[in-house]
């Protein structure tokens, strides 16, 4: 009887519990959406969960060390360094979606790194000048330490349209087979652009591109040579806000024009390209506006009546380039030859003449203890007329990649280039130098002084001299496993004057403070016609 009562009570409680349980909501498990492989665009892509967009994540890690010859230990910064090191990283995101208009693609790439040592490997004045690297300001690190961060790519591609930050469409070879990228040639891997590419058929395409002019500017020549400085005594950075350039405003008077270029017209680039099984061919053309500011409203300097010249007119610089890539699998699988030539008028960065020694500056002495500077300015301002006079430049490069075995390969490369200024442009700058120095009673321009035409100093000064550059090098790279490169590259660079001699800044570093002594023969100077440097770089790189 007791057992029966217990059973009935248990049944009753179970029934009540079941009734209450039936009133409660039932929580169902959320279905798990697994990441699916996307095969439509090649290996490595997967579907972003909940979308029909395919994404590929990839990247790179790199170590690099280098040695560069140095012939000087002069008093002053950035002289005597022979070694440099860097660690770099790269992250890529490639997102693609298939639409009724074709593939919609967005690609972003972030590069960053830490570099120390000599210019080139250790730190880059070129990248600092365009805000892609940040200089250390310590006693032993200023000019030898740099943190590098760059939004290298951030573009959208859709139905033939490319918009965003990408490599310039003008470029072709772009140092494809090199480690250091030392040959003369255009290589603007990050610029802002809007382009349309039409596919004609049989591998033939045509592109029109509107590109950011800032990344193609070499400053208009100013004898005052104003440059941005970083204070080593504080964390304040000081940029250039004006670059005064003197012009005649009367028989014995001069005023100042601000020769910093303003952002007005974009660069226009046109490209026709052919891609076939045998290789590729490309013809590129570009226009590049040059402009300066107005004459200063401040009082002019000198004696005599004032005659204000006409406002400086804008000038359209231009450049053309032809490139050819020939695949040579009949020598070895993967072998290829690049040939490329470019000519520019008022557009030096389109020919890439300043590629090794440094860009975005009117002159540079990157070679450690360099004997004289090369001048890269796109134009000078004629001080008599106030109008722009362009410079010309050309470069030619050849590069060959050979696979000794599937794991071992070498590149052999070389280039030659020249930059020239008209004789009248240099003579006109000498005339304004004569006026300004006569009023001041000294050389106010330093090493950018042209000198008075007809004097010994004018014949020996480095400013606006026609120069040439020759580069030759080779590499050996071992890839024991896929996407791992261990390699070393060596190259030789020579710069020189096309005619005459220049003051040797290494042997006579104070010469520009003794212009009068040079002219009257009381101050002897050492001179040079060419300078050279050798560099070796070692790299370990893993792509994933």
Give the terminus-to-terminus CA distance.
78 Å
Largest beta sheet: strand ordering: 2-3-4-6-7-8-9-14-15-17-18-23-24-25-26-29
Mean pLDDT over the residues: 89
Rounded radius of gyration (Å): 31 Å
Biggest pleated sheet: 16 strands, antiparallel, barrel
Tell me the number of helical segments per DSSP (H or I, 4 or more residues long). 6
User: Could you tell me the number of beta strands?
Assistant: 29
Low-confidence stretches: 1-22
Global structural class = mainly beta
Question: Percent of residues in helical segments?
Answer: 10-25%
How would you describe this protein?
The protein is mainly beta. 11% of the residues lie in helices and 44% in strands. The chain contains six helices and 29 strands. It has helices at 2-23, 125-129, 348-351, 423-440, 456-460, 515-520; strands at 46-47, 54-68, 83-99, 102-117, 133-135, 145-158, 161-166, 191-201, 204-211, 229-230, 237-238, 244-250, 252-258, 267-276, 279-290, 301-303, 315-327, 336-345, 363-364, 374-375, 379-381, 388-390, 392-403, 408-420, 467-478, 484-497, 502-503, 527-528, 530-543. A 16-stranded antiparallel beta barrel has the order 2-3-4-6-7-8-9-14-15-17-18-23-24-25-26-29. It has a three-stranded antiparallel beta sheet with strand order 12-13-16, with helices on one face. A hairpin with a 5-residue loop joins strand 25 and strand 26. It is globular and about 90 Å long. The termini are far apart. Mean pLDDT is 89; it is low at 1-22.
């Amino acid at each position: 009887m007791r057992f029966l009562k217990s059973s009935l009570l248990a049944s009753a409680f179970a029934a009540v519990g079941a009734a209450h349980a039936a009133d409660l909501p039932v929580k169902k498990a959320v279905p798990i959406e697994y990441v699916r492989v996307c095969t439509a665009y090649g290996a490595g892509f997967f579907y972003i969960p909940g979308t029909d967009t395919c994404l590929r994540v990839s990247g790179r890690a790199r170590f690099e060390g280098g040695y560069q010859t140095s012939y000087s230990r002069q008093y002053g910064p950035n002289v005597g360094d022979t070694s440099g090191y860097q660690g770099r990283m790269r992250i890529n995101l490639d997102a693609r979606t298939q639409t009724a208009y074709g593939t919609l693609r967005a690609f972003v790439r972030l590069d960053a790194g830490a570099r120390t040592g000599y210019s080139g490997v250790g730190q880059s004045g070129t990248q600092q000048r365009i805000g892609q690297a940040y200089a250390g300001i310590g006693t032993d690190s200023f000019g030898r330490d740099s943190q590098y961060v760059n939004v290298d790519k951030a573009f959208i591609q859709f139905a033939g349209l490319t918009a965003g930050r990408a490599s310039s469409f003008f470029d072709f070879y772009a140092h494809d087979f090199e480690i250091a990228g030392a040959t003369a040639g255009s290589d603007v891997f990050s610029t802002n652009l809007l382009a349309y590419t039409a596919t004609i058929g049989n591998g033939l395409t045509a592109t029109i591109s509107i590109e950011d002019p800032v990344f193609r500017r070499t400053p208009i020549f100013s004898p005052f040579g104003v440059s941005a400085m970083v204070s080593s005594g504080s964390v304040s950075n000081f940029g250039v806000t004006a670059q005064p350039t003197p012009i005649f405003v009367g028989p014995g008077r001069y005023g100042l024009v601000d020769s910093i270029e303003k952002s007005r017209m974009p660069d226009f680039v046109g490209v026709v390209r052919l891609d076939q099984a045998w290789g590729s061919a490309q013809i590129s053309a570009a226009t590049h506006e040059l402009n300066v500011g107005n004459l200063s409203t401040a009082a002019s300097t000198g004696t005599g009546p004032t005659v204000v010249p006409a406002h400086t007119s804008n000038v359209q610089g231009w450049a053309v380039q032809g490139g050819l890539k020939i695949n040579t699998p009949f020598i070895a699988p993967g072998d290829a030859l690049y040939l490329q030539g470019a000519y520019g008028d008022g557009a030096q960065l389109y020919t890439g003449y300043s590629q090794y020694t440094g860009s975005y500056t009117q002159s540079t002495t990157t070679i450690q203890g360099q004997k004289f500077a090369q001048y890269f300015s796109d134009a000078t301002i004629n001080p008599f007329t106030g109008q722009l006079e362009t410079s010309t430049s050309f470069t030619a490069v050849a590069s060959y990649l050979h696979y000794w075995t599937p794991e071992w390969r070498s590149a052999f490369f070389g280039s030659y280039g020249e930059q020239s200024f008209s004789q009248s442009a240099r003579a006109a700058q000498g005339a304004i130098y004569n006026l300004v120095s006569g009023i001041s009673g000294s050389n106010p321009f330093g090493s950018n002084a042209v000198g008075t035409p007809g004097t010994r100093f004018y014949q020996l000064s480095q400013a606006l001299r026609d120069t040439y550059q020759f580069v030759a090098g080779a590499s050996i790279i071992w890839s024991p496993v896929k996407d791992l490169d261990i390699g070393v590259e060596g190259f030789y660079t020579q710069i020189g004057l096309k005619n005459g001699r220049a003051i040797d800044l290494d042997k006579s570093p104070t010469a520009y403070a003794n212009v009068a002594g040079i002219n009257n023969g009381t101050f002897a100077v050492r001179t040079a016609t060419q300078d050279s440097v050798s560099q070796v770089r070692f790299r370990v790189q893993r792509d994933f």
